[in-house]
Amino acid sequence: MSKFDYDLITIGAGSGGVRASRMASQTGARVAVVEESRVGGTCVMRGCVPKKLLVYASQFAHGFSDAKGFGWSVGETKLDWPQLIATKNAELDRLEGIYGRILRENNVDHLDGRGVVKDAHTVEVNGKTYTTEKILIATGGWPHLPDIPGIEHAITSNEALDLEEFPERIVIVGGGYIAVEFAGLFNSMGADVTIIIRAGNILRGFDEDIRDTLAQEMEKAGITINRECVVRSIEKEGDGYSVRMHGTETISCDQVFYATGRAPNTKGLGLEEAGVELTPKGAVVVDEYFQTAVPSIFALGDVIDRIQLTPVAINEGMAFVDTQFKNTPRPMDYDNIPAAVFSQPPVGTVGLMEAEARAIAKEKGGDVDIYMSRFRPMKHTLSGRDSHAMMKLIVDRESQIVVGCHMVGDDAPEIVQGFGVALKCGATKQQFDATVGIHPTAAEEFVTMRDKLPDHDEDV
Q1: Which class for 183: exposed (0-12), middle (13-18), buried (19 or more C-beta within 10 A)?
Q2: What is the reported pLDDT for 460?
Q3: Which CATH code of 3.40.50.970, 3.50.50.60, 3.40.50.300, 2.30.42.10 fits the domain covering 6-142+263-325?
Q4: Cα distance between residue 428 and residue 226, in whole Å
Q5: Options 2.70.50.60, 3.30.200.20, 3.30.390.30, 1.20.272.10; which CATH number does 339-456 get?
Q6: Average pLDDT, 10 consecutive residues per value, the chain (460 residues)
Q7: Of 261, 255, 194, 268, the residue nearest 225 (C-alpha)
């Protein structure tokens, strides 16, 4: 009989923690999950799912606007924000129930409360201690707020999903995926949206053509992007707020929304006291098998600050279980992971960005070929909407393997998901060219692009 209460205690019932826990339990391990908030974690309760539901809601505005060009007469429309939030919350309650049932059906105990690591084999929950052979930290991340005067007036993505009233004027500080996604949905619903960024463009870290195309489309839609700006202070101003930037320049608004990054959620967990190493940003340091400096303590998901995507955390959880409970050690493969930004228009991307692909190729004495298409989607020839799409392929010149596939435009995430399989299989440009497209679709552009950009031609 084991000397421990459990074989595994997972702290954090998000996507990664729940997947790892139930898969470990299926091997016969005795497993418990500790959660102080809602089962489902950031993605289901405070991120991907509720945000996507609001994005869907905002897109009806485009449909109403486009309808006239297709012969439809649409009467007066009005957004009922409280009703939207209520139906969104009902769906989250349903999903939380499903997650709870998944744990119960897999014989995983749910320990309700805050988990604190007391030592290598002990977790304390609400004053009660539990012993375990292994501990898994899967506590995710949390929105980061800078220390400036008036920051207490700002909201984050957590609060933006549950606002009681729709903000007619909103200032969004930050230019990452969370910022541009919320900017798009609030703009489509009728808000006056201003983005403030330190950098010269949105979506730092993405391919430059993605950044440029999306910024242009957002500005055409009426979103103001204030580049190379820093917020100095926020003050209450009547029923709203005043945001001061350079000198005496101020912006008045109803809400100030900060989307300036997320920090690993490790404060107060007792990790360093137990011997676990953290980075200066608070991320848990792990090896390729998610093991920390303490052999019995592991971590995965956003809390290790590698690739902060829900499917990544889920796959890390399965790799952890294969290694620790199935005796088949397996590291996580981080190459060619598809990703999306549910901006308006949305972004789909997989593989290398042009700059990094070129740098890698030049280290080997080679280069890359670039294929790109910019066009007005067929739908908008009748709708009249001034919206354009961009599609881009990055090809290693020597091997002709497609190393990057990027799109900005309607259905980009759905389209690029499929091409993610092709990149994972090492498909070449010749194989793309040999694939017959489905006509008429936007996706067929990826298999009909034949001409390299002149600036990147072999003879230049």
Answers
A1: buried
A2: 36
A3: 3.50.50.60
A4: 40
A5: 3.30.390.30
A6: 91 97 98 95 93 97 95 95 97 96 97 97 97 98 95 97 96 97 98 97 97 98 96 96 90 97 95 98 98 98 96 98 97 97 98 98 96 94 93 98 98 98 98 97 96 64
A7: 194
d(CA 318, CA 152): 39
Residue with tokens 């596939």: 405
CATH architecture of 151-260: 3-Layer(bba) Sandwich (3.50)
Query: What is the set of active-site residues?
Result: 439
Q: What is the pLDDT of residue 1?
A: 58
0.85 exceeded by the pTM?
yes
Instruction: Please state, in angstroms and rounded to a whole number, the distance separating the CA atoms of residues 57 and 190.
Output: 12
Residue type, 359: A
Q: Which residues contact 409 (CB under 8 A, 6 or more apart)?
A: 345, 346, 377, 387, 388, 389, 390, 391, 442
DSSP bridge pairs for 262: 143
